[in-house]
Amino acid sequence: QVQLVESGGGLVQAGGSLRLSCAASGSILSFNVMDWYRQAPGKQRELVGGITSGGRTNYADSVRGRFTISRDNAKNTVYFEMNSMKPGETAVYFCHLWGWGVGDYWGQGTQVTVSS
């Protein structure tokens, strides 16, 4: 069983930056995909960005060019650098890991609030 602990959320002004971290209790090398999702009040959870074990990244169109996902295998941590943030991006951000034969794991979420 892998536990995921997110950190780095908080209050930021529009145009500002935050860096989220997702620390896993075990090695992340077993996971094929590591993603960040977000869920705003009254809305469905949406995929914002992801990175594969091979280092390939993908992003939602709305964040491409502003957000960057990365991983540090030695620290078993996935990061999400968010720049030029917008008020509409206020949400709870969740870390998600998935791997063949390993399973599917979610963090508890971290609140991000972008003020205008």
Summary of the model, kept short:
The protein has 116 residues and is mainly β. The protein has strands spanning 4-7, 10-13, 18-24, 33-39, 46-52, 57-59, 67-72, 77-82, 91-99, 103-106, 110-115.
Q: What percentage of residues falls in helices of 4 or more residues?
A: under 10%
Order of helices and strands: EEEEEEEEEEE
Low-pLDDT residue intervals, each spanning 5 or more residues: none
Number of strands: 11
Helix-strand makeup class: mainly beta
Number of helices: 0
Question: How would you characterize this protein structure?
Answer:
- Helices cover 0% and strands 54% of the residues.
- The strands form two sheets. Strands 2, 4, 5, 6, 9, 10 and 11 form a seven-stranded mixed beta sheet that branches. Strands 1-3-8-7 form a four-stranded antiparallel beta sheet, with no helix packed on it.
- A hairpin with a 3-residue loop joins strand 9 and strand 10.
- It starts with a strand and ends with a strand.
- The model has no long low-confidence stretch (mean pLDDT 96).
